[in-house]
Amino acid sequence: MILIRHFSRSDRLPHCTRSRVGKIARKLNTTESDPNSRPEGLRLDICTEIVYDKIMRCALYARVSTTDQNCEMQLRELREYISRRDWKNGGEYVDTGFSGAKASRPALDRLMADAAQRRVDCVVVYKIDRFGRSVLNLNQQLVSLNSYGVRFIVTSQNLDTGEKSSTSHLLFQILASVAEFEREMIRERTLSGIRAAQAAGKVVGRPKRVFRRDEVVRLRDVENLSWRAIGKELGIPAMTALDSYRQSAPATCTETVVPEAPVSSGKRKKKTVAA
Length: 275
What we know:
By secondary structure, the protein is of the alpha/beta class. The chain contains nine helices and eight strands.
C-alpha cells in the first residue's frame, strides 16, 4: 500500500506536483508486487514523499459444502501462514453450506467487493477448490483480482499470482481443471449410488407427507382459504397443498380441432416454363 506524506500544512499542492504523485504512485503500485522489496520512501520534492506501508492486508477465505462441517482447520492454517510472514489479517470470509460451483456466495461476494475497493492486498485460501470448482468462474475471479491489484495465494498448493511468471498461471489453470474434475466425479458417484439404491427398492428423497388430500380440495373450493391458511390448518407447507390440489383436480376432456385448409376462389394460374 502506498501512502503520500506531506511536510507542509498547505491544503493543496501545485497541479504539477499532484500529477507527478499520481503517476509515480500508479506506476509503483502496478510494477511492485512484493511490498517487502520496496524502498522505505521516495522523495518527490521538498514537501512531498511517498511512504510504503509494508503491512500486507490479507483476506482469509474458507468454504465447506455442508452445514455439518466447519472451516476451523482451514482458518487455522491460513492464520499461521500470514503470521509467519508478519502480515495483517484483513478479515475472515467464511461460506458454510455452499457449493463451489456457485459463482455467487455471500462471503465471496463481500470479499470481491472489498477487493474492488482495495481494502485488502491479497486473498489467501487453503486449497483452490475451496475458492471454487468451476474453471470459468475461477478465471473470471482471477482476472478481477488482477485488475484490482490484489494477489491470490493458495497456501497448500504453493500458488501465488503475485509472481509474474507463466508457470504460476499454468499451475492455476491445471489446479482449477482438477477441482472441477473432482466435483464432476463426486456428482457421478452420488448419482450412481442413488440409482443403485432405487434399484434395491429403497426410497430415495424426501419422505412423503400423510394428510387428507380431499380436505385440501374442500378448504380451497368450499371455504375459499388461501394456500398458506390451508397449510397452517393441515400442518403442511403451502406449496405441498398447492401441488396436492393440482394433482387431485379432475381431468377435463379437451378436443383439438384441426383447422381446414383455406379454399382459394378463382382459377389457378398456370405456370409458364421458359423454353
